[in-house]
């Protein structure tokens, strides 16, 4: 099995915290890694995000097009499409990239006879930044180019501050930030929850255009309550699915639609707990690991461990530093006395 340099570095960055903890324990007799964890960060007071409902998504990709338009992103033509799309007439992204901040992917199995079914079925998944409550990308950025808004919790990137180290790319557990290798100066690209549109009381483009309400914007606690309501529904029930902003504030109120629940939701809200929680949530009838979202992850974000270890190491360095200063002073005084003799 070959391992790409990118995959190797990603594993190395994520594994760094664990390795450091093991080293502390083994070499310095430090407490166990979990004892070094700092407390998880609380949710931002006015956290906003998206709720993606895979069972409502029809794969129309209107959100992909609107995202491109709203963020001035160029078309994306993968190498295997150049034979029929060499002039880039068609924007056909297959994954997140430096040209694509939002993508719809599809899970398929067997005959693909039914939507939202794991066996012999298919399901859609929307991928974009999840705006983590305790984001790894913010934690590892050495120059604070990646920041989390203290009020809205939106995670943004400042290209003017960025030094192009790509630590954020390697640290993100969801593989979101992408580096533009085609730009002479490079640049990190990722969804910033259309904060420029929110500033004008306009919906994030993906939630604005979604015809079914599969992508819904709103305050994260409201979205979580809606996700809980949906995962308690059973197939055959009639219910109301809102569109736009669940709170009806940004972009004004919109009509949703009545529909019959056609698939059995899993009792799992993606992002409620994963890695300290995320402001963008997802519900589905197909297991999230099948949708390529990491599920075997801790409830606390990786920064709780890596920053906890960092602080412990720094605090532990105060004693040795004082000892070193004392020894240096004694050596200096001894040398001076020796010269005087
Ligand atoms: S616009 Fe809505 S329904 Fe269409 S692909 Fe995007 S999330 Fe799915
Ligand atoms: S999903 Fe990745 S890029 Fe987005 S906030 Fe979380 S760690 Fe950062
Ligand atoms: S919030 Fe804006 S940038 Fe993020 S995926 Fe939706 S349209 Fe794209």
Walk me through the structure:
- The protein has 341 residues and is of the alpha+beta class.
- The chain folds into two domains: 60 residues; 236 residues, 2-Layer Sandwich (Alpha-Beta Plaits), CATH 3.30.70.20.
- Helix content is 30%, strand content 14%.
- A three-stranded mixed sheet has the order 9-1-12. Strands 2-4-3 form a three-stranded mixed sheet, with no helix packed on it. A two-stranded antiparallel sheet has the order 5-6.
- α1 crosses α8.
- The radius of gyration is 24 Å and the shape is globular.
- The structure holds iron/sulfur cluster (3 copies).
- The site of one iron/sulfur cluster has 16 residues, from α2 and β4.
- The site of one iron/sulfur cluster has 13 residues, from α3.
CATH topology of the largest domain: Alpha-Beta Plaits
Mean pLDDT: 86
User: Which spans of ≥5 residues are poorly predicted at pLDDT below 50?
Assistant: 1-6, 15-30
Radius of gyration: 24 Å
| Count of domain modules | 2
Report, as a whole number of angstroms, the end-to-end distance: 69 Å
Query: What spatial order of strands do you see in the largest sheet?
Result: 9-1-12
């Amino acid at each position: 099995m070959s391992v790409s340099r990118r995959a190797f570095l990603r594993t190395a960055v994520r594994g760094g915290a664990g390795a450091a903890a093991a080293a502390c324990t083994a070499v310095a007799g430090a407490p166990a890694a979990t004892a070094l964890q700092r407390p998880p960060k609380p949710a931002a007071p006015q956290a906003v995000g998206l709720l993606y409902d895979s069972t409502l998504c029809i794969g129309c990709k209107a959100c992909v097009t609107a995202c491109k338009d709203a963020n001035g992103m160029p078309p994306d033509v993968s190498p295997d499409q150049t034979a029929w799309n060499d002039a880039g007439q068609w924007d056909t992204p297959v994954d997140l990239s430096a040209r694509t901040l939002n993508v719809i992917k599809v899970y398929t199995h067997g005959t693909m006879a039914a939507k939202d079914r794991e066996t012999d079925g298919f399901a859609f998944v929307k991928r974009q930044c999840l705006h983590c409550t305790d984001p790894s990308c913010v934690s590892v950025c050495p120059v604070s180019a990646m920041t989390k808004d203290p009020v809205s919790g939106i995670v943004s990137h400042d290209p003017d501050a960025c030094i192009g180290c790509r630590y954020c790319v390697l640290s993100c557990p969801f593989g979101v930030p992408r580096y533009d290798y085609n730009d002479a100066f490079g640049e990190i690209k990722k969804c910033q929850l259309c904060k420029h549109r929110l500033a004008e009381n306009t919906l994030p483009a993906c939630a604005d255009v979604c015809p079914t309400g599969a992508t819904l914007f709103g305050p994260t606690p409201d979205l979580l309550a809606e996700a809980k309501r949906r995962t308690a529904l059973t197939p055959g029930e009639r219910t109301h699915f809102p569109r736009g902003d669940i709170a009806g504030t940004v972009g004004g109120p919109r009509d949703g639609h009545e529909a019959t629940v056609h698939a059995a939701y899993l009792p799992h809200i993606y992002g409620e707990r994963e890695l300290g929680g995320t402001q963008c949530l997802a519900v589905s009838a197909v297991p999230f690991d099948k949708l390529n979202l990491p599920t075997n992850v801790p409830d606390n974000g990786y920064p709780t461990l890596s920053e906890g270890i960092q602080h412990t190491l720094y605090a532990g360095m105060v004693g040795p530093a004082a000892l070193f200063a004392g020894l240096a002073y004694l050596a200096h005084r001894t040398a001076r006395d020796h010269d005087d003799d």
